[in-house]
Amino acid sequence: MQNIININNINKTLKNASKSSIDSILSKALNFKELKPDEIAVLLNIEDKKNLKKIYATAKKIKEIIFGKRIVLFAPLYVSNECINDCLYCGFRRSNKSASRITLPLSKIVEQAKILEHTGYKRILLVASENPKKVTISYLASAVKEIYKNTSIHIVHLNSAPFNIDGFKKLHNSGLGVYQLFQETYHPETYFYMHPGETEKDYYLRITAMDRAIKGGIKDVGIGALFGLYDYKFETMALIFHSRHLEKKFGSSAHTISVPRLRPAENTPVQKTKYNLSDEEFKKVVAVLRIAVPAAGIVISTRESAKLRNTIITLGASQISAGSRTSPCGYSSETGKRWLEQFSIDDNRPLDKVIQDMIHHGVIPSLCTTCYRIGRTGKTFTLKAYEGQIKNFCLPNALLTLKEYSLDNASLQTAKICDKMINKYIKNIKKYKLPDNLNLKIEQIINGKRDIYY
């Protein structure tokens, strides 16, 4: 962990990076050879359009080698906005007295999950504020179990405060899929400034949470940084080396790497900083992460605009949220109270529209959850990804879940668009190297069978 905690040392490399051949670095990446820190720094320092296009093209190629043309869709479900922390950029900060607070009872969590289920989601991410008295391990584990018991949601992920190993064991036993926690910023001085009252111990407990989660049995973990709090090149390098630490210690890279950008939040003192990065810089971050951590799922949230997200899904991203709400009870239209939101979003498209736009851009929307349920997780997933096997499951499973969505949830217009894409792949099974019996499985879905996968 020393390399990660002292990651600020790597920032010096950015200034001293050699001007080695960009083509040579990208060729090395395409062969899945680990890039050195100075090679990553070279890519991060590129600003001319010609070489940026090379980076984007390489990221796209690597993403399609690993995952194919599919993009996984999910939705966040906020269970609490009652928080003990006072993070300067977060709407949930305890000093914000502007709106109502709540920690949802289990019945309300299930109610929200059912709304998402009826929309078409099979994968949801529970998001919890930090409140040890109310958002306990038992509460979160029970929420996971109740969702599985009362809905057809196939996999539940969690973004919450860090726990000890025994706590993670309880979460693992509940059937949790991915445990996700963002360091927010890996730069210690900025971390302490942005999180008043927190100590070096808190920074350390947060940055080591993934080690404890994996030791507790959770094989897939997700890391992230809030871009805009500190220098984007530094944060990108830190994420890469955090993931490498996990891969070297446990055999699997970070399952997901999230790259949210700082967005306005109600009554927060930090809504913009000198480190806010441009859209072009943000695209470069996504591409470099894909190049440097090929097997990770790069996650783009609804903090970004629809226009930018439609571009980024072709540059290396592999997972996106859609139709998101960032407050508890956010998916209920009948609620009389305005529950406090964590931050404002920029992409307000519903899932149906997002799926339309993805297909328009040649990307296969995927609602697949198979890997978690049949053991393609952790080290197994990482190895199969590098061997080029994961996409052999991803593509057909994406088409199968898209057919389910077309029949059960899509608008008439979207259903036609989905079916057109599905039929294109079915008619060209050999060309796309899809299983010979895919058309038979599609027929089974048409005839009423559900949850079919490879």
Notes on the protein architecture:
The protein is an alpha/beta fold and 454 residues long. It folds into three domains: 14-60, no CATH class; 66-368, Aldolase class I (TIM Barrel), CATH 3.20.20; 386-446, no CATH class. Helices cover 47% and strands 9% of the residues. The protein has 20 helices and nine strands. An eight-stranded parallel barrel has the order 1-2-3-4-5-6-7-8, surrounded by six helices. β6 (256-258), α13 and β7 form a beta-alpha-beta unit. α15 packs parallel to α19. It is globular, with a radius of gyration of 21 Å. The chain starts with a helix and ends in an 8-residue tail after the last helix. The relative contact order is 0.14. The model is unreliable at 1-7 (pLDDT under 50).
Compact overview of the structure:
By secondary structure, the protein is an alpha/beta fold. Helix content is 47%, strand content 9%. The two termini are 37 Å apart.
Please give the largest β-sheet: 8 strands, parallel, barrel
Cross-sheet strand order for the largest sheet: 1-2-3-4-5-6-7-8
Count of individual helical segments: 20
Residues in β-strands, percent: 5-15%
Quote the average pLDDT.
93
Query: Strand pairing plus helix content: what structural class?
Result: alpha/beta
Rg over CA atoms, rounded to whole Å, is: 21 Å
The counted number of beta strands is 9
